[in-house]
Write a structure and sequence with these properties.
Helices cover 19% and strands 32% of the residues. By secondary structure, it is of the alpha/beta class. The chain has a 20-stranded mixed sheet that branches. Strands 5-7-9 form a 3-stranded parallel sheet, with helices on one face.
């Protein structure tokens, strides 16, 4: 925060400061030390623009007139200064309440025990900063040793990067009445619901690289921007925020992942959730690898990365999981099919979300992929999907990427044309394995001719348009 030139600042005489001496005159008739002769409040405006407590203190070597002035600054920034020197400096600060306090311990002194970090936080609280930034590191062995955050009654913004440490809230009756922005990174930080209840005016919350957040519950009438980057697994996400406008989430889905999301005013949203448990899927052999959800031009876009495997036990239904998400209008499915039949799982997704406007299916096969063996689970359990029909009345644009022209892919193409009766545009991007002389290519061309009202485009593997 910069000090405006018209900001009044009245100081008491500095304790221990020498009496002012008259300006020194020079033989050439020039003026004296005009800068040092300026009033204290003007000198402090000069020092605050240095944005460095060390540099401010070193001005005493220029003139004794500057000695001790840094102690009266209302903005203090300690960067690349050892903790002992920072503590000694904080004890000398005269200003009873700071507008900003920034402490960044240098890398060679960062590994600190919890007791010293706790003492530093309490020393900072004594100065009642309105804007607080602290960057320290602890030892991995102290990850479960709790450090209580002191009360910062005047703080409107707090940014704590306390790596490898465990932060807890103060006593139950203590609130952060003025806090509007909170950023916490690199530490264990749990009990999110309790934190939110103690910050009645919180507008921005960032929790990045933290662990211990198995459950995130945020019910807030004031929060407008939310960033959650969880290092551990997340089992429960419960967001009720009527004025939330921006939400960014990066997490690993826990084994029992549940979502409750209510934010009618959200304008910018981005979620990325990996499913390392590999226990969420469709049917017996298709499982979810990751899920992306974001907003683009006021529309929700859902992207699913789905793999084929007969070795992953699926005990949670993907359709039930994504039913908890906001209503999306664009669906992108990336299939690691490895030559297996994928019509049934994609049809199940489309049957559940018949209101989508655009669909993209990307087929990923290995170079040496061969067709799956007879009676493979990918098709034997649902062979009738080819004859099914579902109403996709809103689906207008479809793109298929990696089309190889196999019989089941041709059947899938027929299914889409049959169900999406109001389709306007179909785009097919061919695999390198497809040639115009192939039977699958000829079948695709005949389908396009049968639906002449649909704009159909075909691209080769090089990206060039292929004449059909």
């Amino acid at each position: 925060m910069e000090l405006q030139s018209d900001t009044p600042l009245t100081l008491q005489p500095l304790p221990g400061a020498p009496p002012r001496s008259p300006p020194r005159r020079y033989p050439d008739g020039g003026g004296g030390d005009r800068i040092s002769a300026l009033p204290d409040d003007v000198l402090l405006q000069v020092l605050v623009r240095l944005r460095c407590a060390r540099a401010s203190a070193l001005t005493s070597s220029v003139s004794r007139r500057w000695r001790g002035l840094w102690r009266h600054l209302f903005e203090l920034s300690f960067r690349e200064i050892a903790l002992d020197a920072v503590n000694a400096a904080l004890q000398q600060v005269v200003c009873p309440s700071l507008s900003r306090l920034e402490i960044e311990i240098p890398e060679e002194h960062r590994i600190m025990d919890p007791a010293r970090v706790s003492a530093l936080l309490h020393a900072a609280a004594r100065l009642a900063p309105a804007d607080l930034v602290i960057d320290v590191w602890g030892h991995c062995k102290d990850r479960d040793f709790p450090i209580e955050i002191p009360c910062f009654e005047r703080a409107a913004s707090i940014k704590l990067r306390v790596v490898n440490l465990y932060l807890t809230l103060p006593a139950a009756d203590i609130e952060f009445p003025l806090l509007e922005r909170l950023s916490v990174a690199g530490c264990r930080f749990d009990n999110m619901a309790e934190l939110i209840s103690r910050c009645p005016h919180l507008r921005v919350l960032e929790v990045c690289g933290c662990w211990g957040l198995d459950t995130v519950k945020i019910h807030s009438p004031s929060i407008e921007e939310l960033v959650l980057d969880n290092n551990g697994s997340l089992s429960n996400l419960d967001i009720v925020a009527p004025v939330l406008e921006q939400f960014r989430l990066q997490a690993t889905m826990g084994r029992d992942f549940n979502v409750l999301f209510s934010a009618p005013m959200v304008q910018s949203l981005w979620w990325w959730c990996s499913c390392e448990q590999r226990n969420v899927g469709i049917g017996e052999v298709w499982y979810l690898r990751s899920l992306d959800l974001w907003t683009e031009e006021s529309a929700y876009i859902l992207q699913l990365n789905i793999d084929f495997s007969t070795h992953m036990p699926v005990d949670h239904d993907l359709i039930q999981q994504i039913a908890q998400l906001p209503q999306f209008s664009v669906l992108k499915i990336y299939l690691a099919a490895y030559g297996h039949v994928f019509g049934a799982p994609v049809l199940d997704l489309l049957a559940t979300y018949t209101g989508i406007l655009r669909l993209k299916v990307v087929i990923r096969n290995l170079e040496r992929t061969q067709e799956c063996p007879p009676y493979c689970l990918c098709d034997a359990s649902r062979p009738y999907w080819r004859s099914q029909s579902i109403p996709l009345l809103f689906l207008e644009e479809i793109e298929i990427d990696g089309f190889e022209g196999t019989s089941h892919e041709v059947d899938f193409l027929k299914l889409l044309f049959r169900c999406a009766t109001l389709m306007k545009r179909m785009t097919v991007r061919l695999s390198r394995k497809v040639f115009p002389s192939d039977g699958g290519y000829e079948e695709m061309r005949k389908i396009f001719e049968a639906y002449a009202s649909v704009e159909c485009f075909v691209y080769g593997s090089s990206g060039r348009v292929v004449d059909i």
